[in-house]
Design brief:
Layout: H1 8-13, H2 18-28, H3 39-52, H4 57-65, H5 71-74, H6 82-91, H7 95-112, H8 117-122, E1 126-136, E2 145-147, E3 150-160, E4 165-173, H9 178-182, E5 192-194, H10 202-210, E6 214-218, E7 225-230, E8 240-248, H11 251-256, E9 261-268, E10 273-279, H12 286-294, H13 297-309, H14 320-343, H15 350-359, H16 367-372
Parallel strand pairs: 1-5, 5-6
Antiparallel strand pairs: 1-3, 2-3, 3-4, 6-10, 7-8, 8-9, 9-10
Length: 388
């Protein structure tokens, strides 16, 4: 394995453009009142927590102290104390970390793109939108109201289907309805938005249609409609059952969405029920509509990876600002790992990549060499000499 003067953690941080980082620091004035701990040192500490899967501020402090010989390589002047990190998490504006995520996404996005067959075939941008609840203890996080005796944080995200990472993300308390988070957003004409039933608001969907945005979603089970026309199913997919043009019935729904919609019935073997998938595109094949809705699973996988592989269930600070900083640093850590995964020649799964990275975080080996060839080839046994 090729050696390096820097450990893997320091090499990973080199992927971050420091000039862009400094511009954001200047924009947010985030180094003011920093108590001697720069924004960069704070950021390195919080990303170290995510990559090292650490549980507390003390673990971050001690972990960075163990890297004291590598402080210069990490570009940190001194290791922050537990109390300094606690103060900074509560007081340094979390908007900086949010802007940093989207700045890094812009920088790394060309290397993150992947060819997705439906987006490629449709020649359109495909976005997947959903939210996920992160439970919190209401007595500690009293600002995160959800239910009478429960607290929660809700992450609303719009995933770009090309690279599987949020092109938009918003953190709210658990009570915010999905549709309320979606209404202020705008999407480019010709793009495709795939959402679940929580976003079925016909006035909002009609607004999308009027702006030239195509949508794919599920019809609620209690929604009434009438069939306008039936189309034959031209597909080898045995789960496709029906393809219709429909109109909504009922004064409220018809007034909110007066145009025709497309309805495709798809059998779901897991739920043992039919999914009623609707779209405002009347020309796609039933196969395309079904596959676009199936692509929504990507955002479920994103939330699953974020919760299972990164520190977003237990928090090292209780203020809303501290929680936001930790969440955005988790997203940045995932962004960097997705970038590595996409660049690697070795077929990594994200869970395997982060596990092996944690085991080798302090190793002074070449990051590029390691992600392409993580395992040494076993030595071949010497050839046996024939005695006869």
């Amino acid at each position: 394995m090729p050696q390096s003067k820097l450990n893997l953690f320091a090499q990973l941080l080199e992927r971050i453009d420091r000039s862009s980082f400094k511009k954001l620091v200047k924009k947010h004035q985030s180094d003011k009142h920093a108590k001697g701990i720069s924004t960069w040192t704070h950021f390195v500490s919080m990303v170290f927590m995510q990559l090292g899967h650490l549980d507390s501020l003390r673990d971050i402090q001690n972990g960075l102290r163990s890297l004291s010989a590598s402080k210069n390589h990490l570009n940190i002047a001194k290791v922050p104390s537990k109390s300094s990190l606690s103060y900074l998490n509560a007081n340094r504006n979390a908007d900086f970390f949010e802007d940093l995520y989207f700045d890094l996404l812009t920088q790394l996005e060309p290397s993150l793109k992947r060819q997705r067959q439906y987006a490629k075939r449709l020649k359109r941008k495909v976005f997947l939108m959903d939210s996920s609840i992160i439970p919190l203890c209401l007595s500690l996080f009293d600002w995160a109201k959800y239910r009478t005796s429960k607290g929660a944080l809700k992450l609303h995200a719009v995933l770009d289907y090309d690279h599987g990472l949020p092109s938009y993300a918003y953190l709210s308390d658990g009570k915010m309805a999905d549709i309320n988070a979606a209404k202020p957003l705008s999407f480019s004409a010709g793009s495709v938005l795939v959402v679940d039933r929580g976003y079925v608001d016909f006035e909002w969907l009609f607004n999308l249609d009027s702006k030239g945005v195509f949508f794919v979603t599920r019809l609620k089970s209690n929604q009434h409609f009438e069939a306008v026309a039936d189309a034959p199913i031209k597909s080898k997919n045995p789960n496709l059952d029906m393809d219709q043009d429909i109109r909504l019935t009922g004064d409220t729904a018809q007034k909110a969405y007066p145009k025709k919609l497309r309805l495709v019935h798809v059998w779901d073997p897991e739920r043992k029920a039919y999914l009623k998938i609707i779209t405002n595109n009347l020309s796609w094949t039933a196969d395309t509509v079904a596959e676009l809705y199936k692509a929504r699973w990507d955002i479920e996988v994103f939330f699953k990876h974020l919760k299972q592989l990164f520190r977003v269930k237990s928090f090292v600070g209780t203020s809303a600002n501290a929680v936001r900083i930790q969440m955005w640093c988790a997203m940045i850590a995932m962004l960097l790992l997705r970038y590595l995964k996409n660049k690697a020649k070795y077929p990594w799964h994200l869970s395997n990549l982060i596990t092996f990275l944690r085991l080798n975080l302090y190793s002074k080996i070449s990051l590029e060499g390691w992600i392409n060839k993580p395992f040494e080839e076993p030595e071949k046994p010497p050839a046996q000499i024939a005695l006869f």
